[in-house]
Amino acid sequence: MSVDLGGELRWWGQALADTWSRHRALSVIYTVAVVLVGWITEVTLALGVMAAGWVVVHLFRRYRHGLTLDDHQRHRRNANYIQWLSGAWPELMIRLGCSVQVTNGPRVAPEFTRYSWGPDVLWMTVSIPLGMTREQLALNADAIAQNLGARRVSVSSSSAGTSVMVAFHDPLEEPFIVEISEGAELRAIPLGLREDGALWTMRLGPQTLVAGSSGSGKASLVWGLILGLAPSIRSGLVQVHGIDLKSAMELGMGTELLTRFARTPESAVQLLEEAVAAMQARALELSGNTRQHAASLESPHVVVLIDEMAALTAYQADRDLMRRANNAIALLCSQGRAVGYTVFACLQDPRKETLPARGLFTQTIGLRLRDAMETAMVLGEGMREKGALCHHIPPTMPGVGFVVPEDGSDPVRVRAGIVTDEMIRDAARDFAAPEQIPIVVPEPAAAEPASASRSRRSRRTTKGEEE
Ligand SMILES: Nc1ncnc2c1ncn2[C@@H]1O[C@H](COP(=O)(O)OP(=O)(O)OP(=O)(O)O)[C@@H](O)[C@H]1O
């Protein structure tokens, strides 16, 4: 059977034309309805695919990073804050005087070029305009913090230029405990927290001076160090030789952890001079073999720990003992590093008269101090401008201080962990030193310094001559 295709087409055309002429309105409605249904179906499908993609991405993020509803709210808050800060920052800089006048031009303020968020902390990278210094920004840190609704602002140098840390919560505000860690290394003894929330550790090696007014928390550093070293003390890898002339009130709590302990000026000087002699003997032994001592059970690292050093170096009635103590401390500080002898000393009053060997301490920790001058004496000139404000630490925050890192970079605000009497007693029981070496002070006649016996001899001779 042959099909007349032309006739068929004409028939369908005619039918369509008839329908159109008879049911024009219906045809329009039908056509629009079909187009709409098709379009809605397509859009719905597209939206569905988009939504599924979004869900997959968010599921991935949520389970990979463990995001919670709080995190979403925080992200939104952070985004709003950055939006506000972008507008407020240039004006704030100009109002605080942190800007420079371009010749025949406008005032230019530091710009924040990048940022990142940590828990309750905003890190900003700021570009300092030509003619301005980072110190100018650091001097206004308190005012910036108040205006940004933050607890603290600190300014430091970073590989990207200048970093401004805006902290909305101070991790150092509440006292905390640092647990004794069996695996702690001598290169990183845990002492407390840094203000960015990271663990604050100290390397055993630099001669360290801790300065702070009465009640500033020096004892928490002394005991923090001893407890941090506790496993090495028990094994015999480290010996602590303690000196406490304040009626042994402090170190007397845990003498089992100390290999040697002096509580009188005479025994303290004896301890120091014997440490110098042993250090020099070790130096002779090591000379030609190595340039850096490595602690071992046969040759342990010796920490000479002095609580309130001025009692020995400045407030001593016996001037000869005072001179001998200062000499020994200076020798230990200047020759001890390479041969495994470390001095860790505390001081309330950091003036030059209280400690002639102050300059020989290669690491200083400044707790609460009385004024800006003391801060400069302890941490060095220029550290105040870099944000180390020991004299602004409130008495309600003992254990808080500033440390200048060994590489001389910007000072870091830290807090030592609190050490309770119970922790000291427990450590004394569990980590006692393998041996305790008594200090034998020679009888005064035998210990008489050469100069005194010389003068007596000369007096005797004169007397003899007189006779
Ligand atoms: N890191 C710390 N965190 C919280 N509280 C601390 C910390 N260190 C010390 N304290 C508390 O502060 C008070 C004084 O501390 P501490 O005895 O250590 O001061 P100090 O500087 O050694 O004083 P002094 O020179 O008069 O002996 C104590 O009551 C102690 O409990």
TrEMBL record:
Pfam families: FtsK_SpoIIIE (PF01580). ATP binds at residues 212-219. The chain crosses the membrane at residues 28-57. Residues 186-376 form the FtsK domain. Residues 435-467 are annotated as: Disordered. Residues 442-453 have a biased composition (Low complexity). Signal peptide: none annotated. It comes from the Bacteria. SUPFAM superfamilies: P-loop containing nucleoside triphosphate hydrolases. One of its GO terms (molecular function) is ATP binding. InterPro entries: FtsK/SpoIIIE/SftA, FtsK_dom, P-loop_NTPase. This is S-DNA-T family DNA segregation ATPase FtsK/SpoIIIE.
